[in-house]
Amino acid sequence: MQMKEEDNIPGTVNGTVMERKKGGVEDSRGCTDTLVYEAGSNQAAGRGDRNGTGNRVGTGIRVLKRNMKRNGSRGCVTRKTRFGSRERDWLKGDAKRGCVCLYGGTVDPQPPASGPQASSTLQADLRLVLCSTTTTVEELCAQREVEGLYLQLHGDLLRRLDPSERPLQMVYDYLAAIGYQDPLRVQREAANSDLSCMIRFYSECPMNADQQERTLLTGVFSVRKGKTQLHKWAERQVLLCGTCLIVASVKDSLTGKMHILPLVGGKVEEVKRRQHCLMFSSAGPQAQTYFVNFDTLADYQRWHRQASKVVSQTISLVDLSCYSLEEVPEYLFYSQDLTHLNLRHNFMSLQGPGGLLNLPRFSQLKSLNLSHNRLGVFPESVCEILTLTELNLSCNGMNTVPAQIGNLQSLQTLSLDGNQLSFLPEELGGLAQLSSLGLSFNNFPHIPGVLDRLSGMDRLAMAGNRVETLELGILARMSHLKNIDLRLNGLRWVKSEALEAVKQVTQLDLRDNHLATLDLSSICSLETLHCQRNQLRALTLSGFTLRTLHASSNRLTTVNIYPVPNQLTQMDLSRNLLEYLPDWVCDSRKVEVLDVTHNFLSELPARLLSSLSLRKLLAGNNRLQRLPDLLDHVPLEVLDLQHNKLGELPESLFYKALNLKYLNVSANALEIIPPSSQSEESLSTLQELYLTGNKLNENCAALLVGHQNLRVLHMAYNQLLSFPASKLSKLELLEELNLSGNKLKTIPSTVSSCKRLHTLIAHSNHISVFPEILNLPEIKLVDLSCNELTEILLPDSLMATLHELDLTGNSSLMLEHKTLNLFSHITTLKLDQKPAMMAGDSLGSSTLWNHGYSEMSGQRNKLCVSVLAVDRFGDSVEAAYGVFDGDRNEEVPRLLQCTMGDVLSEELLHSSVDSVYMNNTFLTSHRKLGMAGQKLGASALLCYIHHEPSELGSYFSLTVANVGSCQAVLCRDGQPLPLSKVFSLEQSTEEMDRVKLSKAIITEDNKVSGVTCCSRLLGCSYLSPWVLPKPWVRTEPLCSQDDFLILGNRALFERVSYQEAVCTVQAVRDPRAAAKKLCTLAQSYGCRDNVGAVVVSLHIGEDSCTCETTHGNTGTEPRGPPPTPLPVTAPPGEPATPSSSSGIASEFNSETSASEVGSEAGSTASDEHPSGPTARPERRCSLHPAATLCAPAGPGSAGVGGPHQVLFQRQPSCATFSSNQSDNGLDSDDEAPLEGVISNGSKLEVEVDIHCCAFQIRSGPAASPKDHNLDKTRSDYPNGKMRRQNSVVVSATNGCLLAVCGREISDLKKSPSTCSLFGKKLSNGSVVAPEDSHNLIEVAVEAPKKKSGYFTAPAQQDPEDQLVVPPSLEQDVREQLRGQSPMVPGPPPPFTPPSIRDPVWDHPPAPMLPQRDLAPNPIPALQQEVYDTAL
Questions:
Q1: Does residue 562 sit in helix, strand or coil?
Q2: Pairing between strand 937-947 and 879-885?
């Protein structure tokens, strides 16, 4: 929307009449005199005269007012800001100029969606103020005649700006902090109104109804005191503030005597004899009562709701946190019974009637929380509240603590975390009752000496400081100190110079330091020790009182504890270098949980398994070859032995460990499992059994019958030829069954006896008959992909519980129309796309790359992982793949799946530098998340395969960018090559230091503010600047030794190592089956979260590029990615290009000469094309055709440019959440629709192949007249763009023209649930923008019959659908349609008259552009931006 300025309506600012001045904005360099423009309010259309007049006033601000449209997401602006010529001149004049968006203070009367301070939807107009980085708040307020400006970050709190602050500079600083580097890009992003979801300025302080209700209720109502009828009703001013009901003595006045009624512990009841009347009573034997009669039902409900909260409290507490308060309500001081006051996350000031200086007026206040208030200094007035027992001043940027702190003799808990403190006053040592002191995340270099005098302190928190040396002698002098937290300090030494014992310390936390050795034998009363993630090689402890030991992720080879820790119950020694277990482990009598995973243990002591206390033993990922026999009954309940070398299990395991409920022996060499009992009657209580990745055959199935309580059974990737039907029927309690990767030909029909079965996974077998499971009452998920199914015998009706059915990879499966209708209720239905095989097609065609992906939901049954997979990205031989993991939210991954491809395509137009376009892609995607990205976030990984633009004869390169914990691994020479960086606080020292430096609070589970363990995410903007969206970027040249690429989320690589992942894919080779196996292995190894994997098979050999430099006239090389080729249609008799929908890129036949191949190059030019004298040489090879666009070769043409050359530009979609270059196989230059999942935004999600063979188009040495005419038709579309709505779109697909009927999607986008989060219903397996899939589903459902496995389009076309062609070619196309009419029944579509054609098509062909602007093949060019349909 462009800005419109009214020329004829004079405006006034500060009483000065604005005079007309031509020439736009006056240059204000070096002076403060600039211009103020205020446009009229009637500018919804957004198009008008750009040559408006300027008006001179005396200050340096320019104001433009406009009405903004709102989308369904509250508080978000739907469109981008675009300026007129004068505004562009203003911005181009200086990078320090820009735009500030000012919002009014009127808010939507509806309550916010979540939280008391959620962003409210504005009704007031948005004013765009053009200013510079030196413009202050004071200047802006003077021009706008407002009292002040308010800043809101991430839709959260509002802060009044100081008069000297500079709003535009604040925006620039914010953008630079999240990762933008180019000053011009920062200027452009600052002018984007979408940024308001991240940073927003208000000219007035907006208030919402919820905040007013919770802070203060007031009104004039009829009041009666007492329960007797002798008292009369009177009109009085009534207030409900804090914990009291306040009634004035005089009507309409709050002066004089005030009647105070404490409500805590009292009652509020409805008076049934009077309408809208409440009775308020205080607590105690001398309770008072007031009756209040309200005028309206709304007032009655509001007062009743708030008063009910107060009377239900057990303590006198007032919570005013997160209200953006600068002072407390003055009437709150009437609540003299107040004992607990929470003012966290506000902007409290010292001055004012309700400022901090007046807080001592609360005579009974015991607990005060002033954390996160940006105080800067310690408020000394707080030291006058002598009744305080708890004080929280965390995260206020304080440098010192005043000596007056010694006045708080009753203080028991003091929290000073997250400040800039480096020392404490001596007066603090006089607080005799202080028991807990929080000094975490400050700047203390050592433990303050004043703490020695705090005889009552038993807990000291000093995590995140700068303590490098711990003197145990200091701890010995603190006689009462029991609990010490020294995490994240960079500790290197723990010294014990004297022999003095430290008797009082019971809990010590030394996690995430740099300790190499640790000797704590002098701490004789130690009960709990945390020393994970150090560099420990030796650990020595006292075992007198030790109960819990956590020492994982070190380099320990042994642990010395003396005496034997007979009180030890839990020990974690995982991820160390242990080759054996110390003897004292078996001697300890009370060990219940032992974790020794990821060590080098070759055996387990027999005494350990025979322990009468051990309940949970985790010994996976070791080198165990056998287990000792169990000699007696043991209480063992959980046993994990995965990833060892076990050939057998003890014969007596199941009937000696009768309490065993969980057993995982995946990834071993088992050939048989032990029997469940010695007799026919079994007492087994086993519920979960994981046997994946062994050598088991069908004979072991008989041994499972005794485990009748079995709920989960994983037997994937064994050697099962069958599963005995009689045995399966006895597992009646079975809920989850995984038999993938075996050699099964059928699932026994007795599976119908498992009435509780909700998950059946049996992919990668040889199953040809669909099992009888669809009538099970609780069935939810069925995965029979990669089998040999030919048909499905369905019951008359399906269970409503079934929400996912995966039938991909069954090449012979034929589904009828009736079957699809029966599947219509399934949320996710995954079917194969049948390739369009034509005469002469080659099945053995080699390709550059193809992919497969898999996603599996965890225990939450909500899939929060999404995949982006585009084998043919944009208009060239490029590819893009991505994985997005939202952890516990599904909204952000789906939004990223829909938008990130478009954003990357658009960023490629502006830069060819990998670090620049990838960085900007992530930052722009972060902004496009809008309201969803304020509180929710996701890890993101994006891989882009392309040619290096700097080298003429370059091979392909892979650029990887990621935030969060998603990872990419490249297999090179059979070895894993990690390409990404894990942004986890536990795994990145640099990120940990950065987050600590910004004074974030890192909780004990290593999460930022207790929310996420990742320091970089897309979304979660409310955690800025601790969590940033700036990605890690790496470019790796690809070579012939690169076999495949693996992309996965955190859950995958936590369970499957890089080496195992590579070996797994090498053994399977098929990308889809490999991705399935990776996810199945992760789940069998104990993963309970969402897991997603993408496998990209690479076929880039030595002969993949044969570039030669030519000296043709190629024009100027603009900025952007290099020209890349597009597929061409094979001539008659030659193999057609295979579909990229299954991950297969186009291949050129080796017999086709360069003259037979149309030479095209995809353009990625931006709107402005730089020019220069230097011309870039052409590249000619089978992958890099010359950058000219030719008609089909005719006699004598030899494939070179003829008289009908046309240039095209790639036009990326500017829609926020729709994609014109998503991997749907239809709106790009692919020759067949993409294989995979398609979501139509409703519950039916299925992909089918739809062919309307209206034409046969083949390119060859000699083109037929029909082909020549058709090419002329294509030549009159200089922009490469076609109508998207209400038209019949014609595009080339495997040599056929595919006619698809379009429909409007405006009704969908009006919905609040789909307008800004459009595509939210998208299945996580889908890689197709939602608007591109609706039409496929519609045509499939409407298909009248099945023909050879494909569905034909409806015979009758919509009367409104039109085939749009230039007038000069209408007759030729009519003849073409009539000639092909037997192939598509029904009349030819009507043609669009010239008067109603899109004006963008009417101009003549564009002149010759530089090489980078040359278009792709005409047929794929017609496919761009044409499929925008919806149900």
A1: strand
A2: antiparallel
